[in-house]
Amino acid sequence: MQKPSINIDTHTDYSNVRISLNQLIGLLKMYISPLSGLKIRTKEGELHEVNTETIINVLVTHLSRTQLLELLHMFQIIKKRKSNIKHYFEYILQGIAYKDKQR
Questions:
Q1: What is the rounded CA–CA span in Å between residue 15 and residue 64?
Q2: What DSSP assignment string belongs to 22-74?
Q3: Dist. CA 93–CA 75, nearest whole Å
Q4: Geometric angle at alpha carbon 38, from 51 and 82, rounded to 5°
Q5: Across all residues in the chain, what is the average pLDDT?
Q6: Residue 60 main-chain phi, psi, to 5 deg
Q7: Using CB atoms within 10 A as the burial measure, which of 22, 49, 96, 100 is most buried?
Q8: DSSP state of 48
Q9: 40, containing H or E segment
Q10: What is the pTM of this model?
């Protein structure tokens, strides 16, 4: 069985991507699991270490399907150029935490 993937072209129409929520979560786990000691700083300056399940729950709760697909697309581009996604990912999580605190 072939793994689901997202086209790594720069212009992708995410509405045409046929992938289930479970497949999205599986792809997120593939990228997030290797990141050990992922920490985010909240607006108040608190530093929190987060695990894979918490991260995935936050992403699925706060991002739309299109945003999740865009995120996975960016991860594929970053992986293709052999860079580390950890700092990029911490930045995204801090943005979500900051936005959530403003509600």
A1: 12
A2: HHHHHHHHHHHTT--S-EEE-TTS-EEE--HHHHHHHHHHHS-HHHHHHHHHH
A3: 14
A4: 115
A5: 79
A6: -65, -35
A7: 96
A8: E
A9: strand 39-41
A10: 0.72
Q: Where are the domains of the chain?
A: 21-101
- Altogether, the residues listed in the chain come to a count of 103
Tell me the CA distances in angstroms from 48 to 44, 75, 88, one per residue in order: 11, 22, 16
Q: Say which DSSP state 10 is in.
A: S
Question: What is the Cα–Cα distance from 35 to 44, expressed in whole angstroms?
Answer: 24
**Exposure string over 10-22, b if 16+ CB within 10 A, otherwise e:** eeeebeebebeee
Residue type (1 letter), 12 = T
CA pair distance 11, 4, nearest whole angstrom? 18
The continuous run of DSSP H or E covering 100 comes out as helix 86-102
Parts of the chain with a pLDDT under 70: 1-15, 42-43, 98-103
Sole residue written with tokens 């999580």: 93
